[in-house]
Structure formats: structure tokens, C-alpha cells
Amino acid sequence: MTTKQVREDLKEICYYYSMKDDIDMAMEYVDNSKIRDILNRYNAVMKMARMRIYTILTYYYKEYIIFLP
What we know:
Blueprint: H1 3-18, H2 20-27, H3 33-48, H4 51-66
């Protein structure tokens, strides 16, 4: 996986969480498995991360959301 792909995935994740209520409501009628696949993949990585890595990733994720263009 390239850095570019990670950035694109994080943009998708950020967008999902910024519109979570609306997207979840829409997913009751039309399932968007692509975003769920991305979320599941990153959640699995976070579950396996050591505490220091988890903290760093969480910090950068929060920073990325704040500065998302």
C-alpha cells in the first residue's frame, strides 16, 4: 500500500465520520461496502498496534481531520 493510497483512505474515513449520521441512514437502504471495507481494514490495524503506535496513529489521525482541506 502506498502513501498516496493511505492518504486517500484517510480522506474517505474523515468524510465518512464527518457525515456519519447521514451516511449511516442512507446505508440502511443502499449498502456502501467500499467504505465499510476501508473502515474494517484500518480498525483491524489499530487493534493490532502496540500502545505507542496506537497513540501516535490516533494523534496524527486527529491532526489530519483538523487540517483536512
